[in-house]
């Protein structure tokens, strides 16, 4: 049986539903991040779970060498049309090392973690991140603030995109934030997104076991301090 992310991320419907994600917000976050990190032009980036590559493409346009990996072949096929000598994309599972000690910076952003049913897969993924970066290299992991999301869960939502009406039902069960997505397009469809409600203490444990030290925390894309009650995001900066 396939994992939900193997199926849902490879459908056109996933990209239709999320086509209007705020690119201005994403670019503002990446600009703030680059300003803080101050990378040299010689530094190499890895974007883990890069999707269709919009963040990697943006960083490449800023003059940096970056590679993107994702489990979705459909996403990587799309992203690869933008490849150049300093930008490339590969299908790869984040739970295994991509290129050992190759990168100076690794990005895992916009809640591209916490998908796995087995807790052992979380540690595999973080250890692989640590393996991919050089000694002294940095990891930026951007996750939802699970406590705030659960406390303020919007249970029902309906939205129409490209003449398809999506009905979205959210719930919190067995430590996972669930999003059930229903729609009709010639036939009935149902997909589910499932993200583990990982807390800061969970990540501290995962990073410590992987040889990564957390050196900063932010709570939003303007890089304001993290507050467990009010912050919309949990953004972790760690170093090997």
What features would you describe in this structure?
The protein is an alpha/beta fold. The chain has 2 domains: 4-146 and 198-239, Rossmann fold, CATH 3.40.50.150; 149-193. Helices cover 30% and strands 34% of the residues. It is built from 8 helices and 11 strands. It has helices spanning 4-8, 12-17, 23-37, 54-61, 73-79, 119-132, 146-151, 200-209, and strands spanning 44-48, 65-70, 87-91, 103-108, 133-144, 156-161, 164-173, 176-184, 188-196, 213-218, 233-239. The strands form 2 sheets. A 7-stranded mixed β-sheet has the order 3-2-1-4-5-11-10, sandwiched between helices. A 4-stranded antiparallel β-sheet has the order 6-7-8-9. The radius of gyration is 18 Å and the shape is globular. It starts with a helix and ends with a strand. The mean pLDDT is 95.
Keywords:
Rossmann fold, 4-stranded antiparallel sheet, 8 helices, 11 strands
CATH superfamily of the largest domain: Vaccinia Virus protein VP39
The second-level CATH architecture of the largest domain is 3-Layer(aba) Sandwich
Oligomeric organization of the protein chains: single chain
From the alpha carbons, calculate the radius of gyration and give it in angstroms.
18 Å
- Alpha carbon gap, first and last residue: 36 Å
Helix and strand content put the structural class at alpha/beta
Question: In terms of per-residue confidence, which ranges show pLDDT below 50 for 5 or more consecutive residues?
Answer: none
- Morphology call: globular
Strand count = 11
Supply the CATH class of the largest domain: Alpha Beta
CATH level-3 fold name of the largest domain: Rossmann fold
Proportion of residues in helical segments: 25-40%
SSE string, helix = H, strand = E?
HHHEHEHEEHEHEEEEHEE
Mean pLDDT, as a whole number?
95
The main sheet comes to: 7 strands, mixed
Query: Taking strands numbered 1, 2, ... along the chain, how are they ordered across the largest sheet?
Result: 3-2-1-4-5-11-10
């Amino acid at each position: 049986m396939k994992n939900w992310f193997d199926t849902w991320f490879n459908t056109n419907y996933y990209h239709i539903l999320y086509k209007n994600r705020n690119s201005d917000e994403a670019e503002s976050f990446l600009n703030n991040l680059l300003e803080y990190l101050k990378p040299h032009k010689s530094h190499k980036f890895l974007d883990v779970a890069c999707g269709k590559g919009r963040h990697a493409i943006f960083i490449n346009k800023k003059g940096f060498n970056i590679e993107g990996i994702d489990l979705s072949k459909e996403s990587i096929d799309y992203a690869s049309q933008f490849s150049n000598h300093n930008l490339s994309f590969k299908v790869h599972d984040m739970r295994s090392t991509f290129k050992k000690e190759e990168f100076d910076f690794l990005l895992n952003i916009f809640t591209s973690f916490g998908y796995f049913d087995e807790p052992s897969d979380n540690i595999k993924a973080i250890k692989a991140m640590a393996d991919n970066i050089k000694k002294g290299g940095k990891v930026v992991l951007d996750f939802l603030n699970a406590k705030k999301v659960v406390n303020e869960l919007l249970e029902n939502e309906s939205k129409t995109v490209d003449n398809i009406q999506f009905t979205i039902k959210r719930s919190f069960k067995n430590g996972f934030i669930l999003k059930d997505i229903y729609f009709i397009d010639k036939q009935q469809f149902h997909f589910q997104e499932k993200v583990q409600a990982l807390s800061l203490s969970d990540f501290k444990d995962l990073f410590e076991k992987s040889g990564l030290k957390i050196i900063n925390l932010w709570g939003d894309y303007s890089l304001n301090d993290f507050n467990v009650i009010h912050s919309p995001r949990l953004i972790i900066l760690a170093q090997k």
